[in-house]
Structure to design on (682 residues):
C-alpha cells in the first residue's frame, strides 16, 4: 500500500539558542547585529507594555499585544533586504519597527488617525484586518517583482488562525505554481483569539502543509531570535531563486488577543508558566551577558532611551491634528466622484440644496 | 473603421493595450490556450506569451488578491472572473481589499486594476452564470463599475478602465457579445468613465438602462416611437460613478422616467436612481418613477428565464403606465 499517512511526516523545529540562553547551533550574525536584534526586541516589548497601559487609560483605542512574539517578529524582519516587502497583520509591530515604521505611526493607528494605516511609504503594506487576505497580496507583490526582475522578496506575516483560511491555501498554491519569490511567515502563537491550535487544525504542524504544495516548509523555535533569523535568511535566498517557503515559527501569545478580551476565560494558567520559561528576550539577554556583550548598566541605558523615544512618539501622535471627514472622503477614489464632492460639501456645511 | 462584435472589440482592445504598455498583463481561468470561454482573450497568448497571459489555477479569490498585490507594486493586471456569478468567491478581495486600499492608506497605496466578468441572462446558462450583481459593487465604495452595451462603447470604456487609477469592475453582457456588429475606430480612444450616453433625445419620457438590458429597451423604444411617444433614451454606461447630471437634466425635460435593469428589483441600481430623482427633481416630475427589473429571486432556470428578464412588452407596458399616471 502506498498510502501517504500524516504520521509518516517528520517535523522537528530548528533551535539555535535554547531556553537557558545557550547557543546550541551556529550563527553567522555579527556582534553588532546581535545587539541590534536585542534592542529591537526590547523596544517592541516596551512599546507593547506602554500601548496596553495607554489603552487601559483610554488614551489609545483597541490594541493587539505582541508580547512573547518579539523573537519571531524581529528575527524574521532583521534577515530581510532593503528592497523586500512585508505584508503584516495587526500584530506585527515588532517586524514593522525593524522595517522602518516609527512608533508614532502605530500610536496613530491605534488612535484612529487618517494616516495611521501608513506604516511606511514603501516596503510595508498597511496592516491587514481580514485574516489571511495579505497572503495573496504578498503573492501578487512577489509576482510583480518576478515580472520586473527586481531582486526582492515579499513576506506575508500571518498567524496560525490564518492557515484555516482559503486565501492562505490559494496563496501557497499560486506561489508554487508560478515559482514566486515569496515567504509565508506563520507565527503559530497557539491561539486564534480563544480557539487553541489543536482546534484550529488537526495537522501536527503548520510547516507540513507546505508538502501539499511542493514547497519548502520549515518549523522553527519562534522564541529563538537567532534560529528565526538564520531560517529567514535561508528562506530569503531560496525565495529569490523562485522557491517560495512556508515558515512556521512556534511561539506564544503571552497576552490577550486584543485589549478587548480576557484570556483567563479560555486558557489555563499552567500552560502559561511553561511558556513564560521560554521567554524570547530573557534567553537572548542571558546569551549576550554570557558573551560579555551586554551589562546591567547598558540595559538600564537602553530602557531609559526607549522610554524617552516612546514618550516622544506618543506625544507626537497625540499632538497630530485630527483629519477632517472631508479629508478622509477625498481618498475613496483618486478624484472624488460628484456624489462624494457633494457629500464633502454637505459635511462642511456649505452644501447647496438644489 | 472596422466592423466588430463586442467580443471582438474587447479582444482587440486587450491586444492594443498590452502592446502599448508592458506592465499590462491578463490573468484568469482558461484565458490562455483556450482564449477564454467566450474567446475574449483568443490568440493573445501567442503574441504575448505565458508571462503576460496567465492561465491561473481555479481560485477566484487568488486571482483578485494577487492582482491587488501586483497593482499596488506597479503592474496593471486585467483579471477575468469567468462568470459574474462566481464573484461571490472573491467578494472580500474586491470589496474589502482592492476597493479600500486607497482609503485605508490615506491615498498612499492604490490598486489600478481591472476585473472583467461576463454576466446577463437570455443565453440559457447553467445556474449562477447569469446574475447581474452590479448593485453589490455600487454599495462597495472605492471601486468603479462599467457596463457597456455596444462594441464601440466596450472598446472605449475598456481602454479607459485600464488607464484608470482606481480598481474597475468591467461587466460584459454575454447576450450582446455577438448580437450586433458596428463600425469601431481601430485607433486607441477612451470614453470617459462616469459619462452616460444619451442614445436618442425625446420629450415625453426618459428611459434609463445599461448593459444587457439595453437590447430589449431599444426594441421597446422603437415600438413606443411607432405608437407616437417621444422617448429620451439614456445608456448609463457607468454605474459608479453615476452620471446624475445626465439623469436629472433629462428628467427635468421629460418629467417622466422609467428605469430598466436586469438585476433584481430590491435595492437595485434602479432604486438609487429613483431616489436621486426624488431628491433632486421631485417638483419637475409629473408621475412616479417606475422600474422594470428582474424578479426578486435567484436568477431562474433556462426554461423560465425569458419571463424573468425585462422584456420589450413589460417595458412598453410600464412606459404606458407612467404616461397614464401623469398629472399633466
Amino acid at each position: 500500500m502506498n498510502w501517504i499517512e500524516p504520521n509518516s511526516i517528520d517535523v522537528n523545529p530548528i533551535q539555535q539558542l535554547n531556553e537557558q540562553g545557550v547557543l546550541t547551533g551556529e550563527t553567522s550574525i555579527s556582534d553588532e547585529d546581535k545587539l541590534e536584534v536585542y534592542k529591537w526586541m526590547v523596544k517592541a516589548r516596551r512599546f507593547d507594555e506602554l500601548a496596553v497601559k495607554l489603552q487601559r487609560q483610554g488614551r489609545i483605542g483597541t490594541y493587539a499585544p505582541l508580547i512573547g512574539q518579539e523573537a519571531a517578529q524581529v528575527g524574521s524582519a532583521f534577515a530581510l533586504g532593503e528592497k523586500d516587502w512585508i505584508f503584516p497583520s495587526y500584530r506585527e509591530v515588532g517586524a514593522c519597527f525593524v522595517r522602518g515604521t516609527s512608533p508614532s505611526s502605530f500610536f496613530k493607528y491605534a488612535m484612529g488617525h487618517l494616516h495611521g494605516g501608513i506604516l511606511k511609504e514603501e516596503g510595508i503594506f498597511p496592516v491587514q484586518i481580514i485574516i489571511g487576505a495579505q497572503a495573496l497580496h504578498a503573492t501578487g507583490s512577489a509576482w510583480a517583482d518576478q515580472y520586473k526582475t527586481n531582486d526582492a522578496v515579499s513576506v506575508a506575516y500571518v498567524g496560525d488562525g490564518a492557515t484555516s483560511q482559503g486565501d492562505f491555501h490559494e496563496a501557497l498554491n499560486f506561489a508554487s505554481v508560478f515559482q514566486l519569490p515569496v515567504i509565508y511567515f506563520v507565527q503559530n502563537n497557539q491561539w486564534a483569539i480563544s480557539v487553541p491550535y489543536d482546534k484550529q487544525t488537526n495537522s501536527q504542524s503548520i510547516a507540513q502543509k507546505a508538502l501539499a504544495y511542493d514547497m519548502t516548509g520549515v518549523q522553527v523555535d519562534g522564541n529563538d531570535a537567532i534560529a528565526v533569523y538564520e531560517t529567514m535568511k535561508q528562506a530569503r535566498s531560496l525565495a529569490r531563486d523562485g522557491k517560495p517557503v512556508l515558515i512556521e515559527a512556534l511561539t506564544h501569545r503571552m497576552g490577550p488577543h486584543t485589549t478587548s478580551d480576557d484570556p483567563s476565560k479560555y486558557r489555563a494558567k499552567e500552560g502559561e508558566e511553561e511558556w513564560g520559561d521560554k521567554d524570547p528576550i530573557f534567553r537572548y539577554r542571558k546569551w549576550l551577558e554570557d558573551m560579555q556583550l551586554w551589562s546591567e548598566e547598558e540595559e538600564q541605558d537602553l530602557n531609559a532611551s526607549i522610554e524617552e523615544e516612546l514618550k516622544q512618539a506618543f506625544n507626537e501622535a497625540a499632538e497630530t491634528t485630527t483629519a477632517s471627514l472631508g479629508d478622509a472622503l477625498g481618498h475613496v477614489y483618486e478624484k472624488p466622484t460628484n456624489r462624494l464632492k457633494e457629500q464633502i460639501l454637505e459635511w462642511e456645511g456649505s452644501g447647496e440644496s438644489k | 473603421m472596422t466592423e466588430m462584435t463586442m467580443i471582438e472589440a474587447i479582444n482587440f482592445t486587450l491586444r492594443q493595450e498590452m502592446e502599448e504598455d508592458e506592465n499590462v498583463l491578463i490573468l484568469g481561468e482558461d484565458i490562455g490556450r483556450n482564449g477564454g470561454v467566450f474567446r475574449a482573450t483568443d490568440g493573445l497568448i501567442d503574441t504575448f506569451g505565458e508571462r503576460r497571459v496567465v492561465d491561473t489555477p481555479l481560485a477566484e479569490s487568488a486571482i483578485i488578491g494577487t492582482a491587488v498585490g501586483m497593482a499596488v507594486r506597479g503592474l496593471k493586471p486585467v483579471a477575468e472572473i469567468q462568470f459574474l456569478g462566481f464573484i461571490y468567491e472573491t467578494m472580500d478581495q474586491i470589496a474589502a481589499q482592492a476597493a479600500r486600499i486607497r482609503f485605508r492608506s490615506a491615498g498612499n497605496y492604490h490598486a489600478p486594476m481591472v476585473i472583467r466578468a461576463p454576466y446577463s441572462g437570455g443565453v440559457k446558462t447553467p445556474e449562477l452564470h447569469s446574475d447581474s450583481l452590479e448593485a453589490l459593487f455600487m454599495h462597495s465604495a472605492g471601486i468603479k463599475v462599467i457596463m457597456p452595451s455596444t462594441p464601440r462603447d466596450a472598446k472605449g470604456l475598456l481602454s479607459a478602465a485600464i488607464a484608470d487609477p482606481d480598481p474597475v469592475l468591467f461587466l460584459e453582457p454575454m447576450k450582446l457579445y455577438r448580437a450586433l456588429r458596428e463600425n469601431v475606430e481601430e485607433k486607441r480612444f477612451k470614453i470617459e468613465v462616469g459619462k452616460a450616453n444619451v442614445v436618442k433625445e425625446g420629450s415625453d419620457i426618459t428611459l434609463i438602462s445599461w448593459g444587457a438590458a439595453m437590447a430589449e429597451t431599444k426594441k421597446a423604444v422603437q415600438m413606443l416611437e411607432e405608437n407616437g411617444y417621444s422617448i429620451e433614451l439614456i445608456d448609463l454606461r457607468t454605474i459608479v460613478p453615476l452620471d446624475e447630471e445626465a439623469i436629472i437634466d433629462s428628467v427635468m425635460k421629460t418629467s417622466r422616467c422609467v428605469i430598466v435593469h436586469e438585476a433584481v428589483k430590491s435595492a437595485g441600481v434602479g432604486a438609487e436612481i429613483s431616489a436621486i430623482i426624488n431628491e433632486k427633481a421631485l417638483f419637475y416630475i409629473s408621475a412616479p418613477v417606475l422600474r422594470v427589473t428582474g424578479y426578486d429571486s435567484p436568477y431562474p432556470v433556462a426554461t423560465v428565464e425569458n419571463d424573468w428578464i425585462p422584456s420589450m412588452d413589460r417595458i412598453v407596458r410600464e412606459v404606458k403606465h407612467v404616461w397614464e399616471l401623469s398629472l399633466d
DSSP finds twelve helices and 14 strands in chain B. Residues 197-325 of chain B form a domain with the Rossmann fold fold (CATH 3.40.50.920).
